[in-house]
Amino acid sequence: MTEVSGSLSNRKQTLLAMVEFALVAAVFVADRRHLIPFSKTPFLLAVGWISLRMRAMRWRHIGLRLYRSWPTTLALGAAVGISMELLDLFVTKIVLVRLTGRPPDLSDFLPIVGNLKLAIASLVLAWVVAALGEELVWRGYLMNRVAGLFGNGRASWLVSLLVVSALFGYAHSNQGTAGIFQEAFSGLLLGLAYLVCGRNLAVPIVAHGVTDSIDFILIYTGTYPGLPLR
Fold it and tell me: Mean pLDDT of successive 10-residue segments in the chain (230 residues)?
């Protein structure tokens, strides 16, 4: 990241970063005012793509590549995803319910219960928009940009991990307070996977897709813990 970005002067780097974060903030504001249909991820993805192009970079420069090989990528990603899901279902949610008095608000997903077509469509969107799109945006683009503000050192990446994970949780505010903390924690784990794998996005993408797939299967069957069935 630093080597390629070095072609831009420090002043231009700072100005570009200010414009980028202003655009990201604008997307969040527009979403809060219900001006963005469906998902803000495509809009954030567009900002990230423009940012990379301005720096003469590609997505592979921030980690969009296999982790060693296809078998290793899929196996490690699935292992991380299943571990995250088990932790979420049997530890995180229980703790959050005790702390907040209620589980994450998943009422938006109620139409999926018993609806096979909608469940299949949700699984496809989970892999395309959430797994691929959100990992490119949050772990790829935003973590690199925040770390870049502080020099890309070890402390910079720690700050980036915490800040971006918190923002990731806030981006799911429609799920209530418990949902914000739950998603922030998930973002933290995905960010750690990104860093531990040498800033490789393939493993978090697979892990994210696996966790969301399990969630939608449980929601479809009406067995997801805390789902407000009527």
Answer: 51 84 96 91 96 93 97 98 97 95 93 97 98 98 93 95 97 95 98 98 98 98 84
The reported pLDDT for the residue numbered 10 is 72
Question: Cα–chain-centroid distance for residue 49?
Answer: 16
Domain ranges of the chain: 64-221
Q: Which residues contact 159 (CB under 8 A, 6 or more apart)?
A: 146, 147, 150
Tell me the C-alpha distance between 25 and 18, whole Å.
Answer: 11
The count of C-alpha atoms lying within 13 angstroms of the C-alpha of 81, restricted to the half-sphere facing its C-beta, is 22
Structure tokens at 16: 């570009």
Tell me the Cα Rg of the chain: 18
Q: How many beta carbons lie within 10 A of that of residue 134, not counting itself?
A: 24
CB pairs under 8 A, 24+ apart, for 60-64?
A: 61/1, 61/4, 62/1, 62/140, 62/141, 62/144, 62/199, 62/201, 63/139, 63/140, 63/194, 63/199, 63/200, 63/201, 63/202, 64/136, 64/140, 64/201, 64/202
Query: What pLDDT is attached to residue 2?
Result: 43
